[in-house]
Each structure stands twice: as C-alpha cells, then as structure tokens.
Amino acid sequence: MTGMLTARPVPARSRAFDLFLAGGLCVTFGFLSLAQAHLEGFLAFGMLAPLVWRRTHPELVFYGVCSVALLQWLAQVQLMPGNVGLLVGLYAITVYGDVQQSRIALGIGGLGVLMATSRYWSNSDWKQQITMMVALGALVFGVWALGERRRTRGLYVAQLEERAAQLERDRDRESKLAVSNERTRIAREIHDVVAHGLSIMIVQADGGLYAADQSPEAAKKALATIGDTGRASLTEMRKMLGLLKQDEQRDLDPNQPRPQPGVSSLPELIENVRAAGLTVAYEVTGRPRDLPALLGLTAYRIVQEGLTNTLKHAGPGARTSVTLDFGREMLTVVVTDDGRGAGVAPSSDPGHGLVGMRQRASVSGGTVSAGPKAGGGYEVIARLPYNLPNGG
C-alpha cells in the first residue's frame, strides 16, 4: 500500500501530456456521456479525470476507475464512451505499476468482462453473449499485452543504459588503477636511478680519496666521474618526477586532454552492442588512413549515437550496419537499420540525438543527414572531410 501512495518521479513534459490526455478524454467522452444522461456523465468524469495521475499513482488510478465502473454496474447504467478510462487505467498500471499489481489488474479486467456480459447482454442469445465476451476479453488482454510489451522494452533500455554507465565506471576505475601502477613503476625507476648513481659516486669518491696523495690525476678523474654521474642521475630523476607531476595535474584538472576513442575503437564498441543483443554488420571500404584526433572522435561518437538510437527506437529483432568509407577527400560514416524507423529524435541536451551529431560534424567541417529509408528503417549518413576548414 505504501508503494501505491508514493508518487513516482515524472518529467514535466510527461505530466503535461497526461494533463492534456485526461482533459481531452473528459471533453470528448465525458461530455458525450453527459449528453446521454446526468448520471452517465458524472460516472464518465469519475473514470476519466483521475487519469491525470496515471504515471505517478497508476495503482490508485486503476482501482479508483474500477470503483467507479462498479458503481456503474450496480446502478445498471449502460456502457458509455467514458468507459475508455478503464482501458487507459489498465494500460497505465501495466506500464508504470508494480508487476504483481499488473497481474491482478488483468484478473480484474477479466472479471469485468464477465460482469459486463452478464448484465448488458443477458437478454441476448448465447451466441451473441459468447461473441461479446470474446471481443471484450480480447480488447482487455490486448491492452494489457501492449502495456506489458512497453514495460519490458523500457526495462531493457534501462538495463542497457545502466550497463553502459557501469562500463564507463569500470573504465574510469581501470584508468585510475593504470595511473597508480604507472606511478609505482616510475617510483621504482627513480629508486633504481638514484641508487645506481649514488653507488657509482660512493665508489668513485672512495677511490679518489685513496688516490689523492699518490695520483692526483686519478683523483681528478674520479671527481669528474662523480660530477657526470650526479648530473645524469639528476636529469633522469627530474624527467620521471615530471611524469608524475603531469599525472597529478591531469587528475586535478578535468580540462586536461585525455586519451579519446577514435575509429580504431569502433570494433570494441560494436562488440559491446552485439553483446547487448543487436545484430550489427561492420564494414570498412576504401583505403584506411590515420585521422586527426578530433575527426576520429567525431566518427566514433556518431556511430555510438546511431547504434544507441537503434537500440532505443528500431524495435526488437532489428538489424543494423555500420560502414566506414575512406574516400579521397572525406570519410563517410553510414549507420542504417531495418527497424520501425523511429530514428533519432533531436534532444534538448547537447551532444545527444541528431542535433548533437550535426554539432559534432560541423566542428569538423562535415555534415550529417538522417531520415527514414524508402524500404523501411532509418539511415544516418555523416560526411567528414579530412582537412578541417581554414586549414585547421
């Protein structure tokens, strides 16, 4: 019961849509029912108005709508357009509610079919009763199945996003571990350099001390060796300490340049997407060449965004292909799928969706075109020139 009373977080856009949906249904079906009879109109509004909270409190909305429907059945009020609120409530509890509550809602829907058939078609022959029972049952089960599919798809996408976030965290952890190991290695090398240099200097100093009286030339040579060894050791130690200082600055300053993925990282990205269940074909045509870091990163991010949107929008069983064509003057990146073609929706967040792709491509002097294919599916084509504008 606590779960039913706890409001779920809902984006402002979704809340506005729910308000528009409930208001539209009230205006359309509520007043249509009110035109038939006052009681029918009040019952219709009772089943349609609560839909405003169908995302935040799906269980309470469904049971509230069912309670109004039960009053309708007890009052022997005929079925009316406002009864569509029952189907919307069933869909809402299936998509946004608890899984167990969704199963209970399906059972209540089946019971409602039996009650409606026994009340509203009691005077009909048995063939008509069975026909109406099957039709209403198919409608209820169809709405529930549609909601269940939507829930499953949402959970699948959420798992993929969580997995991607976990991979990012693992990569950062591994990077920090690699930095720590590198610092340990540099510290050992510093120790070796200093210990080796000091050992030579001690030996030369002892030899020069003994030769100072008998062979001044040998003593001078020993002192020269001590100086050369000390300077060389000091130079090596400064280089290694400089490496450590660069690592510290990179950790403290997030704006410091870090290694970024490029075209060479695409096979690993595609393998990760394949592991998530998407069929991906990867092809490279033309003569591969070394790309500038910015251009390689742009191509990588465009492919990554295209595959991510295929996972989200193309539907189950979709197949996609990634093609890199190294032309004479530009790199052409093509990401296509044979799914539903919902494609890439522009996002308000920079760096996401079609807007983000075009922004990245424009920085590299390129262009991005995207849209549904004639035979179905969606296609993203990015053309990225090798030479940046203005000689960049």
TrEMBL record:
Key words of the record: ATP-binding, Kinase, Membrane, Nucleotide-binding, Phosphoprotein, Transferase, Transmembrane, Transmembrane helix, Two-component regulatory system
EC number: 2.7.13.3
Domain DUF7134: 15-153
Broad class of enzyme this protein falls into: transferase
Gene3D superfamilies assigned to the protein according to its UniProt record, in alphabetical order: 1.20.5.1930, Histidine kinase-like ATPase, C-terminal domain
GO molecular function: ATP binding; phosphorelay sensor kinase activity; protein dimerization activity
Region (Disordered): 246-265
Catalysed reactions listed for this entry: ATP + protein L-histidine = ADP + protein N-phospho-L-histidine
Zinc listed as a keyword: no
GO cellular component: membrane
Domain (Histidine kinase/HSP90-like ATPase) ranges: 299-386
Membrane-crossing segments per the record: 61-92, 104-122, 128-146
Residues in Signal transduction histidine kinase subgroup 3 dimerisation and phosphoacceptor domain copies: 182-247
Annotated PANTHER family: NITRATE/NITRITE SENSOR PROTEIN NARX-RELATED (PTHR24421), NITRATE_NITRITE SENSOR PROTEIN NARQ (PTHR24421:SF10)
Protein name as catalogued: histidine kinase
Organism: Kribbella solani
Species classification: Bacteria, Bacillati, Actinomycetota, Actinomycetes, Propionibacteriales
